[in-house]
Amino acid sequence: AEYSHQQELSNQALRQQRDELTVLNSALEEANRVRSQFLSTMSHELRTPLASIIGFSQIIMRSEQKSPLSGRQHDNVERILKNAQHLLSLINDVLDLAKIEAGRMDIKASEIDVQELLNSVVEETRSIALERKLRLSTSVQEGITTIETDPRKVRQILLNLVSNALKFTEKGSVTVSAVRQSVPNGRDDGVEQIAISVVDTGIGISSDKQEHIFEAFYQVDNSNSRSYGGTGLGLSIVRELTLLLGGKVEIQSEEGKGSTFTIVLPIHLRDQRFIHEMRLNT
Ligand code: ADP
Q1: ipTM (interface predicted TM)
Q2: pLDDT tens by residue, 206-219
Q3: Lowest CB count within 10 Å: 141, 148, 247, 263, which one?
Q4: Which family does it belong to (predicted)?
Q5: pTM above 0.90, yes or no
């Protein structure tokens, strides 16, 4: 009788613990939901006045021929515009991250042509490359045609990586290339993947910094990065979006030589779960 009394007590304690955990869990979920709702409302409320600051600064700059500004006024308007644009990209990045974290970023998959995808990313960043006198090109392995994924998200990932490559390269080139990879999966077909790499001949990242660069707001050289611009959120977004698409990001880099950022994506989105599980197991 003594024993079963003991047992009943410990069962009761266990039940109580479980109930407390359930309460805690739903409180956490609620807090998370409120947090991401708050972030998305805030971002929206901040974007509206910012759009007007940016718009009116641009109007002043454009009307300069008609009503000339003093050198000082010109510099000041330019500063307002630059900072407002920086703030806007910060808000957009924070909003994106919050959305992903809250699991509110949906995947809208379709079949897309890999060469066309790379071309569109390169065309969009061509003007920066020209301005910085860098070669910018694509290379797609023979036999690669399409990939089933979310085009907007892959574009966002690649635009982030290519912009970084162009930003942190003083001379040389930036190349975006796609090759096929296959992972054995125990069945006889294997999971087909595409590895898309952005290779630059830039300043590189030392190995002790490499593990940190995907952290939110991390910038290798704070003082330097400020002149480079950027929010320190780009690579966090790259990593989160790539995971969302069932892929992974890899980096190879050597200080002073250059960096290669590679995203590996499943060719068929249906393989997404498999790859994700495999990664968790290793
Ligand atoms: P940022 O807005 O500063 O570019 P990211 O999250 O995109 O933020 O990158 C974080 C940091 O990683 C950058 O500030 C930079 O120090 C480093 N980094 C990213 N890409 C490269 C690259 N291609 N070459 C050298 N350093 C890089």
Answers
A1: 0.98
A2: 999 999 999 998 98
A3: 141
A4: In the N-terminal section; belongs to the phytochrome family.
A5: no
